[in-house]
Amino acid sequence: MPKVTVRYWAAAKAAAGVAEEPYEAVTLAEALDGVRGRHPGELERVLRRCSFLVDGDPVGTRGHETVRLADGGTVEVLPPFAGG
């Protein structure tokens, strides 16, 4: 099973209480299920508003269950940012 690093930014980082952590998951959906299981509560609410990058590529509107993860990869969790 691929081992990936999930990195949290801004409100996601505050809700998780950590900047990054490892997960084992085949798809983005599986990784996010792991995140929700480890951090129930506020982070679950923040995730609903987030966008995601997988190895630097935007996930966009693709179904999270279709986004495969590579061993050693990175998932960036990006809440909406204010300002410009």
Brief summary of the model shown:
By secondary structure, the protein is of the alpha+beta class. It has 3 helices and 5 strands.
Brief descriptors of the model:
globular, 29% helix, alpha+beta, single chain, ThiS/MoaD-like, 3 helices, MoaD/ThiS family protein, 5 strands, five-stranded mixed sheet, 84 residues, 26% strand
Can you put this structure into words, describing what you see?
24% of the residues are buried. The mean pLDDT is 95. A hairpin with a 2-residue loop joins strand 3 and strand 4. With 84 residues, the protein is of the alpha+beta class. It has a 5-stranded mixed beta sheet. It has 3 helices and 5 strands; from the N terminus they run E-H-E-H-H-E-E-E. Pfam families: ThiS. InterPro entries: Beta-grasp_dom_sf, Mopterin_synth/thiamin_S_b, ThiS/MoaD-like. This is MoaD/ThiS family protein.
The ordered H/E elements are EHEHHEEE
How many beta-strand runs? 5
SS class = alpha+beta
Point out poorly predicted stretches: none
Largest sheet: 5 strands, mixed
User: Which percent band covers the strand fraction?
Assistant: 25-35%
Strand order of the largest sheet: 2-1-5-3-4
- Count of individual helical segments: 3
Distance between the termini: 38 Å
Shape, principal axes of CA atoms: globular
- How large, in whole angstroms, is the Cα Rg? 12 Å
Helix content percent band: 25-40%
Mean pLDDT: 95
Which helices and strands, and how do they pair?
Elements: E1 3-8, H1 10-16, E2 20-24, H2 28-38, H3 42-47, E3 51-54, E4 57-58, E5 74-78
Parallel strand pairs: 1-5
Antiparallel strand pairs: 1-2, 3-4, 3-5
Organism: Streptomyces purpurascens
Protein name: MoaD/ThiS family protein
InterPro entries: Beta-grasp_dom_sf, Mopterin_synth/thiamin_S_b, ThiS/MoaD-like
